[in-house]
Design brief:
This protein is of the alpha+beta class. The protein has eight helices and seven strands; from the N terminus they run βββββαααααβααβα.
Length: about 200
Amino acid sequence: MVERVEIHNRIYGTAYGYLMIDGVRDDNNQYMENYEKGTVPCAGCGEWVLIDVPGQDMNEIFPEHKPDFVLPFGKYKGKTLAEIYASDPQYVLWLAESDRNFRIDFKALAGIDPNASDLEEKIKKEADRIRPKTFADDKITFGKYKMKTFREVAVEDPNYILWFVRNNTTHCLDETSFKELINIATKNLLQDDSKD
């Protein structure tokens, strides 16, 4: 249970509180003996997550960043979000996806009026522009099957397609065509097993 947080760098800092096991406070746990009394170990590396700070507005702690926000870290340090979005929009998406507390005003970045009558359509169009969908009949642009289509590989090496779908973090896969590919790959694997 985190009772208080001193933030040092965006979401990292020192958390103060106590250990709970199955909803019950446990002040005598050996795991906590190595840590300064009252601190929660390993702040910011996965052992705790900041959800709320009682009495404080989370929007003040983690404000929504506007296009003129200057990035204070990373490979685009010193550039505004608008400058980064113009040259590398996927990096801005990565920022938002990798840190749920790094909130970005994407509508303002994309120049979309939040009161537009066709708002959803404009957002979808911009999302497709930034992260175009990958289809089963697209050619692979990397690795050992470069220049073959995903569909061809599903027949030739079904395990590869199943591995790719499970481990993909960079492509926005078209759900319908990749479901079909998974079915093809699974069917081919089952046929191969029946031959053995």
